[in-house]
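TICKET #2291
ISSUE: user wants both folds in one file
ATTACHMENT 1:
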Amino acid sequence: MTSSTNTALWSQLRNGDEKALYALYQLNYDDLLQYGLRLSGSVGDSKDAINLVFAALWANRHQLPDANHPKAYLFTCFKNRVLRIKQRQGQKLIPIHSSTEDYLPATSSVEETFIEMQEYELLQQRTARLLDHLTERQQELIKLRFLEEMSYENIALRLNISVRTVYNSIHESIKALKKAFDKQ
């Protein structure tokens, strides 16, 4: 379907056409679900967010803006809803993909996204097992450097150790991870 279809349905929705709401829902559901899976990694949260967005659209149909790009509007509302759901759960969004390409869904199917999620979860489990081979201090250094993306200098300041110690400790940690990886 084209963006002109979304635009026409959006206009009809603003005029109170309930069928237009359902058509918009059906037209955008798969893309929103796929985007939500990449954003949050949760099928339930993604489906909840989709339903909440469309319920809010219907409730506020007469106040909706005249959007030139209703799909972008939907994706923005959806992302904000997923963020609020995750915040209420005390979680952060950790996208499975590194970027969201301006809210445009990838060309992969929902099934491919599920497979990517499963592979991602397996990778997380394997990484956790590998990190178990390190001391607590080594784990802390690896997390600061590679997960929080802190510089060596900032790590040294934070832990009150020399930059050289940070370099050497991270180097030794990586060697230990490689050794543990080779054993698996």
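ATTACHMENT 2:
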Amino acid sequence: MDTKTIFLPALAMAVLTCAVWLRLFYVRIGQMKRDRIHPQSVATSAQAVAKLTESRAADNFRNLFELPVLFYLALVVAALNGLADTATLTLAWLFVALRIAHSAIQCGYNKVMHRFYAYAAGGLALWLLWARIGVGLLT
């Protein structure tokens, strides 16, 4: 397998993160214009929480810097140790697909149990990815 291939899921996650970031700006600026919120009045997170009522995109953007950090590291570890095979790549793409689903749910209709299932399944895919890499490193 070409070494670059294992980083395509990372590229997809970066695109997802950028899309959520753009959504965050669109929603925040829209609310600030609509509600006439002065930027200085939301200078701290406490002030922002009190005035900016639409937080789905912001919440999701923060989520994209939690478990995905371990995902990015897993891809680097796999690439550096010759563990970037079909199974590893499949688990990586599964994680990406589930994170896309999670983001779509959270930034969209935000049904908590649907979002939880996508999150939990993505977490499981990530832990399986790490288990596969761990076995490869230890054998």
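RESOLUTION: both attachments delivered.
EXTRA DETAIL ON ATTACHMENT 2: The chain is about 75% helix and 0% strand.
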